[in-house]
Write a structure and sequence with these properties.
CATH class of the largest domain: Alpha Beta
Helix content: 10-25%
Number of helices: 7
Shape: elongated
CATH superfamily of the largest domain: S-adenosyl-l-methionine hydroxide adenosyltransferase, N-terminal
Strand content: 25-35%
Length: 267
């Protein structure tokens, strides 16, 4: 039988003990689980960046993986803790919109509030570290096959917090979007998916405008000389602005929220 997989995404960083303590709490319940770090380098309290990053990663995992996503500015407050089933995966997280990116791609089939604290959370739960004391133990229970209804009561999918995620728009043959994530290479990832582009692309060459720059749309980074800006559809099939062997973010001085337009090249 395959080992259960629990994957973690947080803003805890690796300087302190927080990420390790959370994984230790999971192993105390599910000692045979394979633990995977998506990242612990989300900027502190940046729920939207966490949502975008989780949405970019989860479909690369085997079905049945349990994801623990903890970027939680409201830790200890009355905000709910939830477990959700979507697309063959489980997600355990605070109810603060962090799962919005996943749900935009894969609507949830079931959501449960983690309300049975006494049985499935640490008895001496800290109000400042629910990642260790509530979320990790609940995820480990799910990974070991505990039925989700034992963790708490059902929550209607339309009764959870959702982030307002920007969507691309189409007008007069142009596709407009915005930068939603900046990776460690300085690539500027947008919300424009390849399928939208393919449905609307023109027979004419296409160009990408961002800020004051017009950059070529190419197949991969090495299609342009070192240091030159380009646009590519990356590994998540979203348009990204890049600089071959460089940082597009540094070159353009742009970050999340900047507008991007794909349009037929002007004569």
């Amino acid at each position: 039988m395959a080992r259960p997989i629990i994957a973690f995404l947080t803003d805890f960083g690796l300087r302190d003990h927080y990420a390790a303590s959370m994984k230790g709490a999971a192993l105390a319940v599910a000692p045979d689980a394979a633990l995977v770090d998506i990242t612990h380098d989300i900027a502190p309290h940046d729920v939207r960046a966490a949502s975008e990053t989780l949405a970019a990663a989860y479909r690369d995992f085997p079905a049945g993986t349990v994801f623990v996503a903890v970027v939680d500015p409201g830790v200890g407050s009355p905000r709910r803790a939830i477990a959700a089933h979507a697309g063959g995966y489980w997600f355990v997280a605070p109810d603060n919109g962090i799962l919005s990116g996943v749900f935009a791609r894969t609507p949830p089939e079931r959501i449960v509030e983690l309300s049975r604290v006494g049985e499935f959370a640490n008895a001496d739960m800290s109000r400042t570290f629910e990642g260790r004391d509530r979320f990790a133990p609940a995820a480990a229970r799910l990974a070991t096959g505990v039925a989700v209804e034992r963790l708490g009561r059902d929550v209607p999918p339309d009764d959870i917090e959702r982030l307002i995620l920007p969507a691309p728009h189409v007008a007069a043959g142009d596709i407009g979007g915005e930068i939603v994530r900046v990776d460690r290479f300085g690539n500027l990832i947008t919300n424009i998916e390849r399928r939208v582009f393919e449905a609307l692309r023109s027979a004419r060459p296409m160009q990408v405008r961002v800020g004051e720059a017009v950059v070529p749309l190419v197949g991969t980074y090495a299609d342009v000389p070192d240091g030159q800006l380009c646009a590519v559809f990356g590994s998540t099939n979203h348009l990204e602005l890049a600089a071959n062997r460089g940082s597009a973010a540094a070159r353009l001085g742009l970050g999340t929220g900047a507008r991007v337009v794909i349009s037929p090249a002007r004569d």
